[in-house]
Amino acid sequence: MKYLFVICFLFQIYATSANAQSYKYHTVKKGETVFSISQSYNIDEEDIYKLNPDAREGIGVNEKLVIPVGESSNSPKSEVAGTTQFTEHTVKKKETLYSLSKQYNVSIDDIKRYNKQLYSEELQMGETIRIPSGTASPQRSVVAENTPPSTKPVVNSKPQEQQISSTREHIVLPKETRYGIARKYGMTVKELEALNPRVEVLQPGMMIRVGTDVLDDEPVIITDERFRFYEVKPQETLYSLSERFGVSQDSLKQLNPALKEGLKFGMVLKVPKNDKDGEEIDNDAYTGSGEKADTKMDLSKSIDNRSTKEIALMLPYHLNKVEEDSIATYKNAILNEKVIRISLDFYSGVLMAVDKAKSMGISTNLKVYDTKRNASEVTNIINSNNFNNIDVVIGPFLKETSEAAASRLESKNIPVINPLSNRSMRGYRNLFQSNPGDELTQKAMLDYLSRNAPGKNVVIIADGKSFKIKSELNNALPSARNINPSSNFVSEAKLAEMMTDGENWIILESDNINLVSSVTSALNRLARKHNITLLTTNKNSVYESDIISNNHLGKLKFRYPSVDKEYDTELSEDFVEDYKSRFNIEPNKYALRGYDLTLDVLLRLASAKDLYESFEKYPGYTEYYESKFHYMPNAGGGYTNNALYILQLNEDLTISEANDL
Prior knowledge:
- The radius of gyration is 31 Å and the shape is globular.
- By secondary structure, it is an alpha/beta fold.
- Helix 7 crosses helix 8 (about 190-195).
- About 35% of the residues lie in helices and about 15% in strands.
- Mean pLDDT is about 80; it is low at about 1-20, about 70-85, about 135-160, about 215-225 and about 275-295.
- The strands form eight sheets. The protein has a seven-stranded mixed sheet, with helices on both faces.
């Protein structure tokens, strides 16, 4: 009977809570104020401000406000007669609403309900507040008795390191969504989900973790039904979004002040609810041309600008080292100078691309300059030559020389495209980095792992130098297990302990040849009895060493991120034959890079007014023999190509795409 009585009591509490936590929309009429509305509903003004933060700045006719009904914030009717008692608590140093809610087993909302000043003021040390006791908190009763376990807010005893280093608590309000909460705290939806990995469904009264950067001009709830939240997809641009929603770019910036810092993947924007056709939009990514943002663009079908393209090619030949009267010395320099060899290979690919463009009706005036691997020489070249009509500068190769060129040409807004360097560069607005760099490459692999690793037995092996990526991997894959190498060695027995009968994904992060060798050799033996895939976020030079067996890597289905892929011999057969007949050698990766990058530039110039317009006009990615390109603006200025491959080494030592990003 006692157990039955408790169940009945909890049911009554739930019924009371369900009645107390009802809400409705109120459409503001002419002449109404927050005070008059609060009076008509017999509630406090603070109850309205709590659910409608923007109302503090004023309300307008036809604006919709969320109103709590079924309870009065200041009326005794809202309390269960005879059951609510209070404990007076004097606030001590470092105490927070969160710690008090845990100490007294009540919700933060309950504490605020009986201490109205806490809706607008912070908790003050020394003040005395009333904490309800003697009854279960309605909000907490609902969560405890009626919320599925997967939706309960969870406080981990050993919280993992998050990308958002500083956090605070947030109580979910009625009608709030992930997009609205992420927007309010200046987060992406992925960051919000990473902070709350166990929360699948948001419910009013639930406590979640958020960042601390509150955007004071952004409401939690959009009350104007003309607008909605929209999460920015990977390859969208401000141009494509303005086309999609039928508003100007300036209007989008006014609706979303955060755009002043640049458009970023994962941002949550306030946008018009309907597109130009009046139909409800979905969250798929579209481009301004109506294509999906992840669609491959064939620019050869959009050629409409047939003016001669003025291209300046800056390469580090370093010809000042070559003695003009000595052919033997010149040949020796070519054979021994790696940079010169790379420059010549790249240049050969450029020439092939110029010829290919010519066959499409695109004429090119190519000017080649020797930068001598010197930033001052780059400055001298630009000062001594007329660059006013140059459409694009391809090169220089090195970080310092590229920055020097971009700096001198920024006032003319002439694009400078660095072909190879993966080093982070200064944010000149005209500087384009065609190599995504290590950070974007790692992020691409993290994204691949987070989407594909669930359901697999994931084991992370990282040496001490790789602590940062290890932390990011554990954040992205919370169920992963870790092996800490000892003296750059992992035993086969230790690896065997981690194996399961299902799919085993081993993530190896190290540039130590002894560690990589011991792990790959041991995994190769274990692969006789287990399904093992080896992965890494950074395929460094160690994997090219003769000590590391390609046969082992192939058997382990080795997967890694890459800027380029191996060209398809069948698809590129004509190109290879033409190249061999012209240069008496097969093209290497630098020749193919020169071809792919130059042809992409020429096609973009031929299908738009200039390079900048082409990125807005055709936001999809372009792809050629070994490389693909999709330039996105950097927050600090300039553009970076974020198009990458996830590759797999197969057992027959061929390379295929594991995933196309």
